Structure to design on (457 residues):
């Protein structure tokens, strides 16, 4: 049996020396060599009749080296298991990296390895205080969503001309000069816009337009700032500054008008399949509940993002930095330079710290994801691809079969598991901290998130 000695060489950084004697590996080497002699297939010799000396000369050095290394690795792994050492990654060899044993002079061998030890640390969620900004749903938000649903499920008609802010314009945008002359090869983009998305004083230019009519405009003149952002994005531009001063020729390819649905039981059923809503009051209550659920999810996401950073910043732990940088340098198709390691290490350090924190919370609180939860999550993902359509009983066989095939995909299962267990981690952690609930408007919430994102870029 291999002997292992342990020596501390730095913070959470030890050296392990693994030593094996000739008696531990040589008998197995000789046995393996005999097996090769019986199975060797060399031209000019019958199978099993190859001279032992020739086999030893051809295969001996490789077999000998493999046997020594196999025993060293076995001794190292047995020691790590017996001592129950919590280490990062794999031990790094410190010596014998160009090992060339002498088969004809078997002796004892020693190999040195460097290990990085995981640090002990405590997590005190009870001491964390965090604000929970809850958006209050207003009657205006409910009415806006009702109208959106009425339009979404409404019937599209094609009037001859634009007569109302609710008209839909199918437009072709072409980059041009101030006179509307389009250069050869100029960028072209199709888009659909409601008339009411344009600036109020600009809409009068749109009334009376019909299929085939054109206009020359600048985006900053035609749209308010809140609409300008997504129009710029739809046109494939990086930001509004890129569109500054640029002229577009817009051509009307179709005028549409959505006839809003009436608030009746048929409409309620289409808007919320499976809910059995019969009255307008029930419908409005469901709309409000859905809006509140959406914003509550956004509030939880914001809180969890805050909690993530607090845990990273306030959880005190020391890491074997020297070892980790050496290990990081070995990762990839080629060894990294010292400069590359220094550049990558801060991000790597944060990711590693979060892995240790999250693993500790998950393990100590027995947060688990069951196979049934994995299957259900994958089923919902599949339904999401089809817009969460309502499937009849006759269609469920193919869905179950597809989910079963996903369950055999290790990468798919691992990704889904990590997402679900992380959701459970934050849901558990959210219940442990001291939350201060503040009511806030949707506009203020959005502005707060935008400012936060700006600070982190």
């Amino acid at each position: 049996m291999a002997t292992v000695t342990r020596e501390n060489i730095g913070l959470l950084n030890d050296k392990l020396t693994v030593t094996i004697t000739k008696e531990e590996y040589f008998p197995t080497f000789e046995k393996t060599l005999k097996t090769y002699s019986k199975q060797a297939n060399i031209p000019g010799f019958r199978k099993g009749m190859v001279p032992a000396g020739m086999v030893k000369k051809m295969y001996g050095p490789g077999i000998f080296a493999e046997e020594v290394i196999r025993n060293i690795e076995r001794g190292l792994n047995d020691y790590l298991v017996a001592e129950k050492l919590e280490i990062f990654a794999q031990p790094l060899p410190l010596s014998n990296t160009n090992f060339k044993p002498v088969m004809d002079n078997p002796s004892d061998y020693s190999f040195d390895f460097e290990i990085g030890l995981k640090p002990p640390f405590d997590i005190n969620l009870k001491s964390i205080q965090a604000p929970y900004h809850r958006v209050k749903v207003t009657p205006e938000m409910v009415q806006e969503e009702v109208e959106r649903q009425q339009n979404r499920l409404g019937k599209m008609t094609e009037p001859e001309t634009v007569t109302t802010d609710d008209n839909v314009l199918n437009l072709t945008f072409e980059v041009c000069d101030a006179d509307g002359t389009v250069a050869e090869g100029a960028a072209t983009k199709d888009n659909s816009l409601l008339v009411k998305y344009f600036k109020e004083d600009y809409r009068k230019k749109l009334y009376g337009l019909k299929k085939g009519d054109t206009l020359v405009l600048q985006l900053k003149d035609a749209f308010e700032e809140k609409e300008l952002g997504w129009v710029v994005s739809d046109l494939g531009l990086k930001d509004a500054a890129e569109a500054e001063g640029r002229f577009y020729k817009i051509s009307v390819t179709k005028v549409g008008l959505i006839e809003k649905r009436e608030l009746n039981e048929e409409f309620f059923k289409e808007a919320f399949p499976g809910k059995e809503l019969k009255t307008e009051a029930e419908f409005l209550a469901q709309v409000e509940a859905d809006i509140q659920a959406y914003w509550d999810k956004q509030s939880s996401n914001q809180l969890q993002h805050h909690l993530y950073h607090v845990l990273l910043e306030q959880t005190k732990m020391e890491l074997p930095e020297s070892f980790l940088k050496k290990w990081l340098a070995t990762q990839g198709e080629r060894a990294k330079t010292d400069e590359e390691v220094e550049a990558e290490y801060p991000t790597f350090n944060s990711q590693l710290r979060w892995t240790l924190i999250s693993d500790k919370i998950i393990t100590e609180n027995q947060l688990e994801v069951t196979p049934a939860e994995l299957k259900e999550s994958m089923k919902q993902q599949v339904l999401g691809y089809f817009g969460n359509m309502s499937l009849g009983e006759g269609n469920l066989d193919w869905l179950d079969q597809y989910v079963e095939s996903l369950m055999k995909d290790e990468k798919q299962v691992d990704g889904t598991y990590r997402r679900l267990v992380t959701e459970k981690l934050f849901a558990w952690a959210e219940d442990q901290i001291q939350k201060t609930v503040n009511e806030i408007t949707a506009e203020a919430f959005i502005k707060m998130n935008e400012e936060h994102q700006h600070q982190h870029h």
Observations:
- The chain has 14 helices and eleven strands.
- The first helix runs from residue 22 to 39.
- The mean pLDDT is 90.
- The CA atoms of residues 50 and 366 lie 60 Å apart.
